[in-house]
Amino acid sequence: MEYRGYDSAGIAVADGQGAINMAKRAGKLANLEERIAEVGENSLAGCTAIGHTRWATHGRPTDANAHPHMSYDGKVAIVHNGIIENFAPLRAELEAAGISLVSDTDSEVAAHLLARAYNEGETAEDFQASALSVLNRLEGAFTLLFMHADHPDMIIAARRSTPLILGVGEGEMFLGSDVAAFIEFTRNAVELEQDSVVIVHADEYQLMHFDGSKASATPFTIDWDLAAAEKGGFDSFMMKEIHEQPSAVRDTLAGHFHDGRVVLDEQHLTEEELKYIDQVFVVACGSAYHSGLLAKYAIEHWVRIPVQIEVASEFRYRDPVLDERTLVLAISQSGETADTLEAVRHAKSQGAKVLAVCNTNGSQIPRESDAVLYTHAGPEIGVASTKAFLAQVAANYIVGLALAQAKGTKYPDEIAEIYDTLEAIPAKVEELLACEGPVNDIAKELGAIRTMLFLGRGVGFPVALEGALKLKELAYIHAEGFPAGELKHGPIALIEDDLPVVVIVPSPRGVKLLHSKIVSNIQEIRARGAKTIVIAEEGDDAVVPYATWLIRIPETSTIMQPLLATVPLQFLAAEIARQCGNEDIDKPRNLAKSVTVE
Ligand code: M6R
């Protein structure tokens, strides 16, 4: 689970004889391993345990703030994901009762509240009733796991607006924020409903709502490959995932074009519903947002309806005009991003139809959406998105084509032709992976850099944004993506001798004007001393005189070019990161894979 948070890590184990032992450490999981070696593994022996890797929200990443948190009497251990919004009054209440809190987290209150509920009052001596009483007092978003020293054979777990999956083994059970936690042990999983609780024993579990009434949940089988969640010979998950991009795109496209028609996933909007749509909103965050920008270009071009795009965290705060003829396309690799989930909820409350593009089976965003189109990129562990991004672009294009088909804005043979071009992409990405070595050489020749600019026009602009984001995330270097035409309106003032500027050049076989304009932009920045890293199609000779370095990509149509042009930028960011001494590119500082807080 470390890819979800690596500010600190900890584990608590019930020894079965009335005690809970714990080890925790700030920093990555390796620090916890060292701590466990110090205290001796035997001191953490037991059959019931809870562990946590933290992404700090309240309180700095320190040993004291690491989870699990223990109650004042040493009997209760908890781990928490999310934010307990009313922690301040609860903390004040505990302090007034003479309990001193040892961390700055919002989470610790849950441990003390549970111990108090178990030690006194109506719920005394009743672990389950005590847990339910605490859960009913908490506001905000939380996945909580409770363990009590006097009940070493059980864990009580609950979720509200943050993920929780139960893995059902033989004589053993697992709880995780996602299935990667336990696919090594079982493929049988159960996704809990919102506001529900699971009481877990080694060979059985019981589901209930926060009021104690019976709850249900849908079991599912995990189809992800275990090998896909391991590094497979690469030195990082991210490098492995970059190399998996041909299959990520291929698998995402598979099965979506039959007998001359675009086919959606099982949970889909009907052709009639799609026909009725007269505007689209795209909501997403980070790389998913960049893929959404490409959805806008494609849908407006193919379907001729207006598409607006919004970073999900802004969407519901600006009162967008939505109605039942609006399609909201919610794009999320994890399917758990809180900002995107809230945008989905807002869209639904306004009567819009929501179609999720998601990589994670059974996650919350698809569950709450009217329809879903799954990307089949497999588990993405590297925090910086690579294969999921490419798969999202492919899936967004499927959505665009399905809309064009339903609304009749493209003839079937035109749709078939576009789909053919899309299906040719995986082989081209495969070919392009060979650019890794030359791109790494460029990164080495660049030397120390403080900032880097990325320029693109048309569909090259989202690629520029994605390239800049990868560099920021991995190398911690300031980077910005601009539409190349915007340069002269301000950013050109940043150009100075030796400043590296990446330029994504559209195909000269596409819109001629677009190509010639960007060639002029490269000349302008070269004239001001910048070093240019030019990404251009094979055979595009017009750019050669202005490129300090030239990276060639295979020919494709203009709209498909982002699926290729992004790949060298991923290698570039990863290698610059290594040159800067950031070896662990899978876990960039301050980030987490799934951001389940708003
Ligand atoms: O799981 P999601 O696709 O909803 O995540 C959205 C962003 O948090 C994610 O794309 C993030 O920007 C990545 N770190 C980018 O590399």
Automatic annotation (TrEMBL):
- UniProt keyword terms in alphabetical order: Aminotransferase, Cytoplasm, Glutamine amidotransferase, Repeat, Transferase
Record domain SIS: where:
270-409, 442-587
A single GO BP annotation from the record? carbohydrate metabolic process
- Superkingdom as given in the UniProt entry: Bacteria
Tell me one GO molecular function of this protein. glutamine-fructose-6-phosphate transaminase (isomerizing) activity
Reactions performed catalytically: D-fructose 6-phosphate + L-glutamine = D-glucosamine 6-phosphate + L-glutamate
GO CC term, one of those recorded: cytosol
EC class: transferase
**Record flagged with keyword Cytoplasm:** yes
Q: What EC number(s) does the entry state? A: 2.6.1.16
The record places the active site at K593 (for fru-6p isomerization activity)
Localization recorded for this chain is: Cytoplasm
Residues in domain Glutamine amidotransferase type-2?
1-203
Where does it primarily localize? cytoplasm
* NCBIfam families referenced in this protein's UniProt entry, alphabetically: glmS, PRK00331.1
What task does this protein carry out? Catalyzes the first step in hexosamine metabolism, converting fructose-6P into glucosamine-6P using glutamine as a nitrogen source.
Quaternary data = Homodimer.
Q: What name goes with this protein?
A: Glutamine--fructose-6-phosphate aminotransferase [isomerizing]
What organism does the record attribute this protein to?
Answer: Corynebacterium spheniscorum
